[in-house]
Structure formats: structure tokens, C-alpha cells
Amino acid sequence: MLKSFAAKAIVPPAIAVTGFVIVCCILLYSVIKTDMLNDTIQHETNLAGTIVKSARFAMLKDDRETLRNIIDNVGQQAGVEQVRIFNKKGVIAFSAHPKELNTIVDKKEPGCIACHAGAVAATSMGRMEQARRFVNEKGKNVIAITAPIYNEPECFNAACHVHTAEQKLLGILDIGLSEEPLQKTLGVLRGRMIVFCIMVLLLAIGGVSALLRRNVLLPISDLTDYVSAVKKGDLDRKAPACRDEIGDLAHSFQDLAEKLKTAQDKLNKPDQPDDTTANRRS
Questions:
Q1: CATH code for residues 12-178
Q2: Contact of 230 with 257, CB cutoff 8 Å
């Protein structure tokens, strides 16, 4: 398939370098994407914790109006697709979308199934287990966090509460942020990495090709021209000067050419009569 020596010398390294750079860029992008997703989830987890702490005073005072205002204000922020609080029975008590109020959340939803997978509902989850990704009814990609609201001592000891100390969970805060900012950042990152990959490939392949041409291809081309000239009878031509194995091979060809020239000179030189023959003729 590759007939010329130049193609055989350049194409395989070029393919190897291209594959290596592409694989490295893909792996690097995957790592950066995972890190950015984890950072987004961490940010959303912190936001959920901030909302729970901000609403704590209103919960202790059973101030539903203040809590409703907090949820509405958070839901009006750019990038917030959903924010709601539902009790342990799954009834949505507060939501930025009024249509959801007093409806029951399906336990089979992605945000609920992690806790309700077993016979007994789990009361705690890790940070990554709280996160989920889905497409909402608007067709937008959403990263959501399910943050439990625990029954802490200041809750079950409050005069307005009827919850016992044995009840560990009071409700759930469910907040979802749009993935659009993350996807835009990843899109810019992909574009820059593609440009970077192309630049690295051009420099790497160009550099390797230039080195191969200078150190290998040109000396071999000169040696080929020299051998062709010797083959045509130009035995006086000097071998190309190189200081590597190609130079040693060229000098070997030159030695052979010099020996061949010496042999030809002897064959072409006319025979000289010796003294005995000359005396006899005289």
C-alpha cells in the first residue's frame, strides 16, 4: 500500500502521534468534564444546605409565609428550574411552581428511588447519591439535588412542633438547576481542546517529518543518486558525506566503485611486451 520509503517512514509515525494526541485529549476532556460536573453538584449541594439553614428559623416559628417567600425567591433566580419542599409522605408543601402544591411525589422518581429502593426508606445519602440528571417538561437538562431536612433537637424540642425525637426526617428539599451554563462551558472547552489538538498534531507531525527528511530521507536520496550514477558507469563520482550508518554504507559503495574502476583500468590497459620478447625480435 505504501510503496515509497518516505511514505513508509512518515505515515506510520504520523498515525501513531495522531492517535496518541487524540486519545490524550479525549481522556483529558473526560476528566475535566467529570471534575466540572462534580463541582456543579457540590455547588448545588451547598446551595441546598444554605436554603435549609435559611429556612430553619421560619420552620421553628412555623412561619409558612416566610418559608413560602424563601422558596419563591430562590425559584425566581436565573438557572433554577425547580425548588420544592415535600414532607415524609411525599406531599409537596412548598414549591416555586404553584401547580405542584399539595400533589404527591411518586416514589419511583429518580430523586426518590435512591432512598425508597429498599423495604425501609433510607434517612441519609452521600453527596453523589443525592444528585440526579434528567430532562424536564420544558426539554431542558437539569441537575437536581435531593437534600433531607432532619428532625434536629431544636426542632422536636420546640413548643410548636409535635414531632417526636424518634422521627429522624421531617421532609425533603428538592432543587434543580439548569445544565445550560455547564454545557456552554463544556462546549467552549471542547472547541479550545480541538484547536489545541490540531496545533499539537501539526507541530508534532511537522517536526517529526522535518527531522526524518533531514536526517534520513535526504541522505538516502543522495545515496540512491550516487548508486544510480555508479551503476551507469560514473565511477569517479564521490559518495555523499554522512556521519552515520548511511555514511558508512555510502563509503562502502565508494570503495566498491574504486575497486571496480581499478579492475576496469587493468582490463582496458594494452599489454606491454617484456624485454626477452623484444630481444628475440631484434
A1: 3.30.450.20
A2: yes
Q: How far apart are CA 20 and CA 196, in angstroms?
A: 14
Q: CA-based angle 190:129:122, to the nearest 5?
A: 170
All structural domains of the chain with their residue ranges: 12-178, 186-267
Length reported for the chain: 282
Helices (H), the chain: 5-60, 64-75, 110-113, 127-130, 153-156, 180-212, 218-231, 245-268, 275-281
**Grid coordinates belonging to 261:** 574502476
Using CB atoms within 10 A of its CB, is residue 171 exposed (0-12), middle (13-18) or buried (19+)? buried
Burial 53-75 (b: 16+ CB within 10 A, else e): eebeebbbeeeeeebbebbeebb
- Flag whether the pTM goes above 0.70: no
The pLDDT of residue 186 is above 90 = yes
Which of the pair, 109 or 249, is modelled with greater confidence?
Answer: 249
- Cβ contacts of 279 within 8 Å, gap of 6 or more: none
Q: Return the DSSP state at 234.
A: -
Work out the burial of residue 185: count CB atoms within 10 Å of its CB; fewer than 13 is exposed, 13-18 middle, 19 or more buried. middle
**Average pLDDT score over residue span 258-274:** 73
Task: At 83, give phi and psi (nearest 5°).
Answer: -155, 125
